[in-house]
């Protein structure tokens, strides 16, 4: 294999490119720079995966993805990129009602089981009282109960993606902006056209997020991935360093912080197609939920809303692997709301598949052709 064309410049595509250029493969990465890329809006929580049932096929992927993060961050540091926003700050999962508090023992059991199973970013989780929870997040409301997850981590998706982009450029990758068109010849995708330029290729990796189905259609593949809009509010607290505050996880929403006084509240889940709009209803939802969990944010000032289109799959499982009938085409998409957690590892997986390497998890649940061909 001499050349790979990657379509999609988010975390998945950049991670695949990084893996390949480190193996001295010629990479051309094509990105259309659409508004609403999930990477540009992602909040950045590496959570313990407690929202998934014990038999969910996503769990082995999530486990390996969490384990991959420290290696990725270390490799980037070796390549001169140390500013990714990755940091273990811990998390508190809070209950603000008696109904939510009643769920906490079961929730703690699930989190502890993940830790026993070897998941990273958890540590010795335990139930704590409201005062202790407030010590980890000073703006917190009085809560009914909380679980402390000491090794939970955050990452700044924009910083991480930028670090990957700078590195792959230094290592020889070429980045092109424009619409990609797949050219089929001899039972494979032989080339990709980008704004009038034809790029011959040995392998194509498609990691185009919520726009992946459009590319799949070009080769007759049914890939039910649709955009789910997420609105995320960004605030600032004057004269307050929030850099060391823990992540706050509620039962429906979350709050996290970044240096120096940056606060993030998320997120809505709006099935409205590619409507790149900020709505009053969305803002009301975020502010109501944010203040319910952290009344100390009343004095925070509003900075911006970021919108990202999550690539949501029909059955909620991602698509990762090779396309049957097109031996040189691979997809990594459909990660929904956990793309920031598993995206970099998914990119590494398809890069390894292209390199004919063995991967450590069963990809059958994520088969690219599981919905058939048109």
Summarize this structure briefly:
The protein is 30% helix and 28% strand.
The ordered H/E elements are EHEHEHEEHHEHEEHEEEEEHEEEEHEEEH
Question: In total, how many beta strands?
Answer: 20
Distance between the amino and carboxyl termini: 29 Å
CATH topology of the largest domain: FAD/NAD(P)-binding domain
Q: What composes the largest sheet? A: 8 strands, mixed
Biggest sheet strand line-up: 6-7-5-15-16-17-14-18
> How many structural domains are formed by the residues?
2
Q: State the CATH architecture of the largest domain.
A: 3-Layer(bba) Sandwich
Rounded to the nearest angstrom, the radius of gyration is: 21 Å
Summed up, the helix count is 10
Quote the beta fraction. 25-35%
CATH class of the largest domain: Alpha Beta
In the predicted model, the low-confidence regions spanning at least 5 consecutive residues are none
Overall pLDDT score: 95
């Amino acid at each position: 294999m001499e050349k790979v064309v990657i379509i999609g410049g988010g975390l998945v595509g950049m991670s695949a490119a990084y893996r390949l250029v480190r193996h001295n493969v010629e990479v051309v990465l094509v990105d259309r720079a659409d508004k609403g890329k999930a990477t540009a809006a992602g909040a950045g929580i590496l959570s313990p995966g407690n929202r998934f049932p014990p038999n969910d096929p996503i769990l082995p992927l999530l486990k390996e993805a969490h384990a991959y993060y420290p290696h990725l961050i270390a490799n980037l540091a070796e390549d001169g990129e140390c500013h990714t926003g990755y940091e273990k700050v811990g998390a508190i999962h809070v209950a603000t009602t008696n109904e939510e508090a009643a769920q906490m023992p079961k929730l703690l059991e699930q989190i502890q089981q993940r830790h026993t199973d070897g998941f990273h970013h958890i540590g010795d989780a335990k139930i704590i009282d409201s005062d202790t929870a407030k010590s980890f997040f000073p703006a917190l409301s009085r809560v009914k109960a909380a679980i402390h997850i000491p090794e939970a981590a955050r990452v700044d998706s924009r910083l991480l993606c930028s670090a990957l982009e700078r590195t792959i450029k230094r290592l020889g990758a070429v980045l092109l902006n424009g619409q990609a068109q797949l050219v089929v010849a001899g039972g494979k995708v032989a080339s990709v056209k980008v704004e009038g330029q034809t790029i011959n290729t040995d392998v194509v990796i498609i990691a185009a997020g919520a726009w992946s189905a459009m590319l799949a259609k070009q080769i007759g593949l049914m890939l039910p991935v649709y955009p789910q809009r997420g609105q995320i509010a960004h605030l600032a607290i004057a004269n307050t360093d929030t850099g060391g505050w823990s992540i706050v996880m509620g039962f429906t929403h979350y709050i996290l912080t970044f240096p120096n006084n940056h606060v993030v509240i998320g997120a809505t889940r709006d099935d409205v197609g590619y409507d790149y709009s900020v709505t009053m209803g969305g803002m009301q939802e975020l502010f109501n939920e944010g203040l319910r969990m952290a009344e100390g944010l009343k004095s925070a000032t509003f900075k911006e809303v970021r919108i990202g289109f999550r690539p949501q799959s029909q059955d909620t499982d991602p698509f990762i692997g090779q396309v049957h009938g097109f031996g040189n085409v691979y997809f990594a998409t459909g990660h929904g709301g956990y793309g920031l957690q598993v995206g970099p590892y998914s990119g590494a997986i398809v890069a390894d598949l292209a390199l004919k390497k063995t991967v450590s998890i069963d990809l059958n649940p994520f088969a690219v052709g599981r919905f058939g061909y048109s």
